What we know:
With 163 residues, chain A is α+β, with helices and mostly antiparallel strands. Chain A has one domain (6-151): CATH 3.30.1330.200. Chain A contains two helices and ten strands; from the N terminus they run E-E-E-E-E-H-E-H-E-E-E-E. In chain A, strands 1-3-8-9-10 form a five-stranded mixed β-sheet, with no helix packed on it. In chain A, strands 2-5-4-6-7 form a five-stranded mixed β-sheet, covered by helices on one side. The radius of gyration of chain A is 15 Å and the shape is globular. With 210 residues, chain B is an alpha+beta fold. Chain B has one domain: 3-Layer(aba) Sandwich (Chemotaxis protein chec), CATH 3.40.1550. Chain B is 47% helix and 29% strand. Chain B has seven helices and ten strands. Chain B has helices spanning 6-12, 14-36, 52-58, 87-98, 110-135, 151-163, 192-201; strands at residues 2-4, 41-42, 46-51, 65-75, 79-86, 139-141, 145-150, 168-177, 183-190, 207-209. In chain B, the strands form two sheets. In chain B, strands 2, 3, 4, 5, 6, 7, 8 and 9 form an eight-stranded antiparallel β-sheet that branches. In chain B, strand 8 (168-177) and strand 9 form a beta hairpin. In chain B, helix 2 (14-36) crosses helix 5, helix 3 (52-58) packs antiparallel against helix 6 and helix 4 (87-98) packs across helix 5. The longest helix of chain B is centred in the middle third of the chain and has 26 residues, at 110-135. The radius of gyration of chain B is 17 Å and the shape is globular. The interface between A and B is large, with 34 and 37 residues.
Amino acid sequence: MAEGKVKIIGMADLAVCKPPDGITTLGLGSCVGVAVRDPIAKVGGLLHLMLPDSTAVANNKNIPKFADTGIEELVKQVVAAGGLRSRLVAKIAGGAQMFAFQSGNEAVRVGDRNVAASLKKLKEMRIPVLAQDTGDSYGRTVIFYPETGDYIIRAVGKPEKII
Amino acid sequence: MANLSLKEMTAQYSDLLRELGNIGAGNATSALSQMLDLKLDMSVPEVRLLEFKEVGEAMGGADQIMVGIFLAVEGDIDGSMMFLLDSPSARHLVNVLMNTPDSKEESFTEIELSALKEVGNIITGAYLNALSMMTNLAIVPSVPYITVDMLGAILSVPAIAFGKEADEILLIDTQFFADVKLDGYFVMLPDLVSYSKILSALGMGEHTIG
């Protein structure tokens, strides 16, 4: 598994890969990392989204920036790479509140809203969410391997987790 | 009234934006230098228009652990201001402030974080004051908030705020450094409307940016 290449994606970005490769995104804060995979075909992808809803803002051309359009595009690309739509499963991570002020006002709790919007979109598309590591107040670096479905989560001062 | 894309505005006014950063960060650096009784140098400010996917790498890597102090900015302009320090620099700064020269602890106590937050408050205040004097605009910072985490995670907060209206992020950053272990950044992030207000306040005419 460790033989493969690991592609790095940034904010408002997505990628798809096949074994033995993996995909990582460094330092997810209030953003959410959605990993989608076909466990039989063993292809999968990772999306690093920033905002919950493309219909809530005027400038919404950047597809991977939003939970709704980003997850649709991710699913499309995983299917194009050989995944079967009905077999897809998901795992999500991120959506932290990096600074204390974010806990005060509902409107600025964008981490929570990103998580809720991701779960809603996945439910709408009937893609089961197998695991999630979301919320709290710390950043996460995530690595996703479509071969095993392992979604590895690293945070400052915490032991590594695999969900 | 001229309509400019963010890219055109950045290209046309990069010298002016750089000068804003220069004056703000100059003031902030001298406030910090006085507070620490230490000679500090600063870099020429950089005006950077970045795609979101590039933001993490722009300041030395998205997974680099930094201390981030964040203030929301209100008044005539809206946006955010950040003061970022890498971990060893923050430790050094705390040791000077708290008179604990030998501490090598990687994590910070509540009191140490509180001291760092106050430093951030004073020097970002100095930065914004200079900006306010120059533009004659009211610039009111919020109380400061602090976190110690990966750079990408810290920057996700202003990036998301900026991301509601743009697909690129324009930031003015200045690096400062000393002979000993002090390395950090000031980052100023007005929103798009505020950039128009700043340009107009400086006599550059009326623009719509977006």
